[in-house]
Automatic annotation (TrEMBL):
Transmembrane in keyword set: yes
Stated name of the protein: YitT family protein
Keyword Phosphoprotein belongs to the record: no
Primary location recorded for the protein, binned into one broad class: membrane
Transmembrane segments: 7-27, 33-64, 71-90, 96-123, 143-165, 171-190
Keywords: Cell membrane, Membrane, Transmembrane, Transmembrane helix
Subcellular locations according to the entry: Cell membrane
Record-linked Pfam families: YitT_membrane
Organism the protein comes from: Paenibacillus pseudetheri
Classification lineage: Bacteria, Bacillati, Bacillota, Bacilli, Bacillales
Xref: PANTHER family: UPF0750 MEMBRANE PROTEIN YITT (PTHR33545:SF5), UPF0750 MEMBRANE PROTEIN YITT-RELATED (PTHR33545)
């Protein structure tokens, strides 16, 4: 089972990296979670997205290390591989856009769906990229709210901040991204939820 899990993390991370670089970044669209925060940092300062993801994730992973080692181990590999692949695919953005250009609305939907699928298949095999999913699990211990609702609230706050800092257009396109990503993640984890 372990080699399959590594393959799933690699595939999921590749989908996240492709969705980020080829569909969101060209139109300054945000995703929710830590990737969304890293994208805001990138759009405002030009900082590397993968590096920003790792730095922004550090406090959450430190908390996971101290409180829930299993969650830490299941997520740290996804974090590192997805951050690395985002950096690796970044220079290919120009070549992709030379052959394929979908427009901002289609890119928001397709990018969100790719990223949601990547996250969904990782969650299905008990792995993830960590980030606000981890944070939501800790918040749920102290606040009696649904886990999905906590994640939605954090995503909404992040894209709201991004819309305020970047543009209203960014906000509306980013809403499409998190809806599309949520649908894809839900479809990928549907069977496991029914068990």
């Amino acid at each position: 089972m372990r080699p399959l899990r590594y393959l799933i993390i690699l595939l999921g991370s590749l989908l996240v990296a492709a969705g980020t670089n080829f569909f969101l970044v060209p139109y300054k669209i945000l995703d929710g979670g830590i990737i969304g925060i890293a994208l805001i940092i990138n759009y405002l300062s030009g900082a590397k997205i993968g590096v920003a993801i790792i730095l922004c994730s550090f406090p959450i992973f430190l908390l996971a290390w101290l409180k829930e080692r299993d969650i830490f181990y299941n997520s740290v590999l996804g974090l590192l591989i997805s951050s690395f692949l985002i950096e690796l695919l970044g220079p290919l953005q120009y070549h992709f856009l030379y052959y394929f250009e979908f427009g901002s609305i289609s890119s928001a939907i397709i990018g969100g769906f790719l990223m949601g699928t990547g996250l969904g298949i990782m969650l299905r095999f008990k792995a993830s990229t960590g980030g606000t999913d981890l944070l939501a699990q800790f918040i749920k211990r102290y606040v009696p709210l649904n886990l999905g609702f906590i994640i939605f609230l954090t995503d909404f706050m992040i894209i709201g901040a991004g819309g305020f800092l970047i543009s209203k257009e960014t906000f509306f396109h980013s809403i499409l991204t998190i809806i599309s990503g949520g649908v894809a993640t839900g479809l990928c984890t549907l069977e496991t939820q029914n068990k």
